Amino acid sequence: MANNTPSPNPTLHAVLRPPTSNVPRSTAAGNSDLIKMLHPITLLSALTSTRTTLKPSIVGGTEVSITDYPYQIALLNGGACTCGGSIISPNHIVTAAHCVRSARDPSHISIRAGSSFHNTGGEIVNVSAIAVHPAYSAGMVDNDIAVLTLGQALEFKPGIEPIALPASGSTALAAGEEVVVSGWGTETETGSLSRVLRAVAVAVTTMAECRAAHGEKYITESMFCAGVAGGGKDACYGDSGGPVVGGGVLVGVVSWGKGCARPGYPGVYASAAYLRDFIAAVAGV
């Protein structure tokens, strides 16, 4: 992987479109400021000085059914899908901190579970509490994890089921290990959200490759990278907070990247193993 000079502004993968090419990956729709900065699909306010780009829809993947990804949920802000998330218990969802850090009132946030579509079907459940990792850094997008408590417990059934967390004491993922990322994010850096759930398989890189691509100081122990050498497969705007699964376990959460699916720039994910203690403490799992 080339030793590229990192962009001063990464891209979060929420549904907001950042002013720079490097931002988180979410799709904020209820907050104009957030939508401007997050990976075309992540709501992040006050992110103009950061290096990341929130991410949109899955790039290079295929349409899938919620029955095969029953832990996937759509995170709704004001009724619009801005990020993804994962069911880990009847009452708890794991997502990216940058997807919810600006949500002052949990009542504005809800989830859609049990549907292959982000805007119809399934069940909508309100969020009653939001716990953001105490060491979360918006500037570094470090410890990018949050746990949502639902106002009403989910009833597990086909299409609505939990995903297991890594075992306590789990080590870092092995380079070359295949993981699957899913979400409703955009399929290109300038596209719209996918109506149907999509998934793509990518390979974990070494930390050395990850740091060479994005910059030594920007990749911390709470992160890992995954992608394909020639680009073309990645999470994108709107996928932020969504699941990264390996071996039937939630190994990560979509966080940020430089654009989407660009050669030499693997996606950056929050490590569920590294952040497990926080998740378990909040959710009691």
From TrEMBL:
Q: Which Pfam families match?
A: Trypsin
| PROSITE patterns associated with the record | TRYPSIN_DOM, TRYPSIN_HIS, TRYPSIN_SER
Keyword match Methyltransferase: no
SMART domains to which the protein is assigned, alphabetical = Tryp_SPc
Q: Which domain of life is it from?
A: Eukaryota
Q: Which GO terms of type biological process are on file?
A: proteolysis
Segments of this protein annotated with the region Disordered: 1-24
Alphabetized, the UniProt keywords read: Disulfide bond, Hydrolase, Protease, Serine protease
Q: Tell me the leader sequence span.
A: none
Recorded family membership: Belongs to the peptidase S1 family.
Can you name this protein? Peptidase S1A, chymotrypsin-type
Organism this protein belongs to = Aspergillus mulundensis
Task: Recall the taxonomic lineage recorded for the source organism.
Answer: Eukaryota, Fungi, Dikarya, Ascomycota, Pezizomycotina
